[in-house]
């Protein structure tokens, strides 16, 4: 006799008996159907922090570029292309229009591994490596209104590469990096005086490839590499006291310690991601000195990228992975859920 599991009996034998059999088989059918659906359906989980692809950077793909933000416009230039040629072109990005516009070329020599910061309506770029891989200490000022560059006083410290920079109030700050030795000194530039001044040295170990951002008149700096060791300490600089304050380390060596990542601040929170094969996005809360995760960067993992924030959104562009150079642009919104499909 052939048994058909989905055929319901109705005529042979006791009516009550057949009814019970039919009910039992119906229950089995529903269970099997549920199991089949469950095996083929993907579950979707979500966490805050979503990325979306925006208009690609219109210059040649590159890594180790420099940049700054003036008002609601980001400026990006220099770096090296896929043939390791140093560059001088500069571009502006308007997130409201999602468009790139080429501006005046950087007026100094072509370079990579430089730093940039902005004070008011002026942007500043300096240090880095030239075409012969010589370390540099010259600095240049970009005037947004006239679309011109002019040279200013040389950086006050030694010529270096892969430093970190930020602006606080009416001053710019540059420190750490490599001049043949790993460094931890910091210097401030006052455009009113046109001069550099030595400030308190970084509170942690010497390093290159660190990240930094500014929240509520304090600058936060950490990560990077010191003689081959990835760092995970975190420090805040208070310009009013000219003092570095030690903060809580990252929570996980494996997931967080990195070099050549990206940092930016959105409102009262800071964000660190990419660098050394990492894609996890870490959010820093200065109110309680804590770290939490907000999903993962959705582009290709990379080093030597450039990050910035405008109008409540963070952005990552350029960078490299091995010999590959990137020109994609990604926008991060910490208020939108990032969906993740799991089988």
Sequence-ordered SSE layout with sheet pairings:
Blueprint: H1 15-40, E1 43-54, E2 66-70, E3 73-77, E4 90-94, E5 99-103, E6 115-119, E7 122-129, E8 135-143, E9 148-152, E10 164-168, E11 171-178, E12 182-190, E13 195-199, E14 211-215, E15 218-222, E16 225-226, E17 229-230, E18 234-238, E19 243-247, H2 253-256, E20 262-266, E21 269-273, E22 280-285, E23 290-296, E24 306-310, E25 313-317, E26 320-321, E27 324-325, E28 329-342
Antiparallel strand pairs: 1-28, 2-3, 3-4, 4-5, 6-7, 7-8, 8-9, 10-11, 11-12, 12-13, 14-15, 15-18, 16-17, 18-19, 20-21, 21-22, 22-23, 24-25, 25-28, 26-27
Describe, in plain words, how this protein is organized in 3D.
It contains 2 helices and 28 strands. Helices cover 9% and strands 47% of the residues. It folds into 2 domains: 1-41, no CATH class; 45-342, 6 Propeller (Neuraminidase). A hairpin with a 2-residue loop joins strand 26 (320-321) and strand 27 (324-325). Strands 1-28-25-24 form a 4-stranded antiparallel sheet, with no helix packed on it. A 4-stranded antiparallel sheet has the order 2-3-4-5, with no helix packed on it. It is mainly beta and 343 residues long.
